[in-house]
Design goal:
By secondary structure, the protein is mainly α. Helix content is 56%, strand content 7%.
Length: 188
């Protein structure tokens, strides 16, 4: 066993932390967290009782059921962003719409706290993209050649006859391999 081997002597908290970091990186984690945090005050405030000394202030309104439904839907959308990140755009749009509906229905959107968190979570969910889809290199072939150590191919030029002594050079838009099989596609 070499002294550089990893995994054997690591603390179990380090292993869990790395696993959680990998899990978190593969989905819109912060979008789901903000959406869940936005749904909690929207669902809680209409049923909360505040105590000021000997006086109890009840926040219950006629829109209590609507607030509860909106809050539970936002919490569900937050978990959907975490565990079914394929539908993240739908969940983000639905979270933004529910956040906007919560302003007139649910005590000004959970006293603006739930509204802002839900709006931010929905926007982050729509904006999130998987790591593979974020950016593809412009010239993937030349980058693969560089990683193998090969020299990149020089572009092929052809010269078209013009009436002048010095004709401009234009890069060829097709490779010699396309000419070898008669210009046909490989599948055809």
């Amino acid at each position: 066993m070499s002294p550089e081997s990893t995994g054997q002597n690591e603390h179990y908290l380090t292993v869990y932390r790395r696993g959680f970091r990998t899990w978190r990186g593969n989905r819109p984690f912060w979008a789901g967290l903000f959406t869940i945090l936005g749904g909690l005050p929207i669902a809680y405030f209409p049923y909360a009782n505040m105590h000021l000394g000997n006086m109890t202030i009840a926040m219950s309104t006629t829109a209590g059921a609507g607030s509860l439904i909106i809050g539970i839907l936002l919490i569900t959308l937050g978990f959907t962003m975490w565990f079914h990140h394929i539908v993240r755009v739908f969940a983000g749009v639905a979270a933004i719409l529910l956040a906007l509906i919560s302003i007139p229905v649910a005590n000004i959107g959970g006293f603006i706290i739930g509204f802002l968190f839900s709006l931010l979570g929905g926007a982050l969910s729509i904006a999130w993209a998987p790591a593979e889809a974020k950016g593809v290199p412009a010239s993937e072939g030349s980058e693969a050649q560089m990683s193998r150590g090969d020299a990149p191919e020089a572009p092929e030029y052809r010269q078209e006859p013009h009436g002048t002594a010095e004709a401009p050079r234009r890069p060829m838009l097709f490779k010699a391999a396309a000419e070898a099989d008669g210009g046909r596609h490989r599948a055809g």
